[in-house]
Amino acid sequence: MSTFDKEVGRKLPSRPHDIPTPEPLMKFMEQGWAPSPLENLQRSSAADFAAKRRELLSKAFPGKRLVIPAGTFKVRSNDSDYRFRPHTAFSWLTGIGGSDAVPDSVLILEPSGSSHESLLFIHPRSPRERSDEFYRNVRHGEFWIGRRMTLDESQLVYGITVRHIDSLDEFLASEKETFIIRGEDNYLDSRIKENNGDEDLASWVSEARLVKDEYEIMEMRKAIDATHRGFEDMIKQIPSTIGKKRGERLIEGAFFTRARFEGNDLGYDSIVAAGSHACVLHWIRNDGQLRDGELLLIDAGVEMDSLFTADITRTFPINGRFTPAQRKIYTLVYEAQKAGMKAVKPGAKFRDFHIAASEVLARGLEELGVLPISAQESLKPDVGLHRRWTVHGTGHMLGMDVHDCAKARKEAHTEGILKEGMILTVEPGLYIQPDDTLFPAEYRGIGVRIEDDVLVTKDGCENLSSAMPSHPDEVEAWMAALTSK
Fold first, then answer.
1. How much is the CA Rg of the chain, to the nearest whole Å?
2. 99, 265, 326, 396: which sits with the fewest CB atoms below 10 Å from its CB?
3. Which structural domains are found in the chain, ordered by start?
4. Residue 316: left (phi > 0), alpha (psi -120 to 50), or beta?
């Protein structure tokens, strides 16, 4: 097997355990293959929306060549790659996601008159008669990774002019001012000169995703519905995992099965945090036990084939009933989330819902007697003592990335104004470390977060995940209904 992919100038992993292919076998492999086109192909439901996005991008950068790579393989270990997920901007502008995405693909918007021509460069299915790639190439070969679409098939499904990736170098030889999404494809980064417009392009594709279109909202609803079912899968597993070594991972596995069954993958590594592990904000070791009388915090989301992902957190009493101390902390977080959601509306500042939730949390901490100053004093930006127990923000934008639109300028995002069509999380939390002596012993090790995904509407917001119970009484009833079967 060749260790160098000459078509795109990228090295293939070295595999010393592979055996050589004799010439007679190579000739024999070229024979006896029947035509096998994909049947009943239809234009993707995302294609028209992606075309409109490209039109907007074209108008924003007249006369500039725009290069948006899908990204390439990322090595997990030696010659084993991680499962491929294309760069968000590439998928958003092409409509290609999930298992249809081919590593090393590149979208180029080529200036044409007052507009641009959209060109998609891909590594298509290799012909059986004129290539040995289909059985020898471990990264692209059909015998190794499955069938890819041909050029014609891709063009039909996604409505973009499609070219073979081996023509990309020749195409780029015609130099013109070019902006590229950097950091996703080392080969293209080295091939295309850096330009101050690269950052402008990255900011534009983030900011353009702040307000979701009809297709994006529909996909978000699907992701949230699938996540709801995944949470119910996990709840059903709780009784049988109590006391088992690494029980958190048994719960995690139930959700992963749902994510892979209904979607493309997990939107992010699931947090399954029992007991004081819930006080570790990004607990993804998930190697602890579930113990009777403690809480279980789960933060998880299904990513659909379109790459839109949910991001939802619920906190459960492992035995199905909150203790008085757990209920007190849980209820405080619940009330803070309600206040945060009321502040989500068009025209509000992005930070307003965080401030609203923080006010409730600070007052509650004052009433619990753990704040050494008043809530009013603590809430001053230059003080913030209440943040000892709530160190993260109350939410973030959500969409194709779990922390969506990260390259947007501050004035359009974190220091911007909410608009109808934006989707974000509202997720206050309180975390009392097990060694925190400012709280009485019965509260130590309690971590609670409640997170929902909300759509900014004309008059306020819609809680897209409202079907998942969050009031403490409803959570107990939800668990009872699922675990008694």
1. 26
2. 99
3. 4-30+38-207 (3.40.350.10), 214-483 (3.90.230.10)
4. beta
pLDDT per position as a tens digit, 214-268: 999 999 999 999 999 999 999 999 999 999 999 999 999 999 999 999 999 999 9
Cα separation, 181 vs 237, whole angstroms: 43
Nearest to 235 by CA among 318, 175, 163: 318
Q: What is the pTM of this model?
A: 0.95
* Tokens representing residue 144 in the block: 């190794």
CA distance 201 to 396: 22
What b-and-e string marks burial along 60-72, b requiring 16 or more CB atoms within 10 Å of the CB? ebeebbbbbbbbb
Q: Classify strands 65-69 and 178-180 as parallel, antiparallel or unpaired.
A: parallel
Among 454, 430, 456, 455, CA closest to 443 = 430
Torsions phi, psi for 89 (to 5 deg): -60, -40
pLDDT digits (tens, 9 = 90+) for 279-315: 999 999 999 999 999 999 999 999 999 999 999 999 9
Which of the two residues, 98 and 44, has the higher pLDDT score?
44
CA angle centred on 330, ends 327 and 332, rounded to 5°: 110
Angle at 393 between CA 390 and CA 399, to 5 degrees: 140
How distant, in Å, are the alpha carbons of 42, 155, 168, 205, 406 from that of 181?
30, 23, 16, 9, 14
Backbone φ and ψ for 254, nearest 5 degrees, come out as: -65, -40
**Edge-to-edge strands, sheet with 271-274:** 271-274, 295-300, 312-317
Burial of 404-414, coded b for 16+ CB within 10 Å and e otherwise, reads bbebbeeebbb
Which H or E run includes 227?
A: helix 214-241
How far is it between the farthest Cα atoms of the chain?
A: 84
Residue 20: how many CB atoms within 10 A of its CB?
6
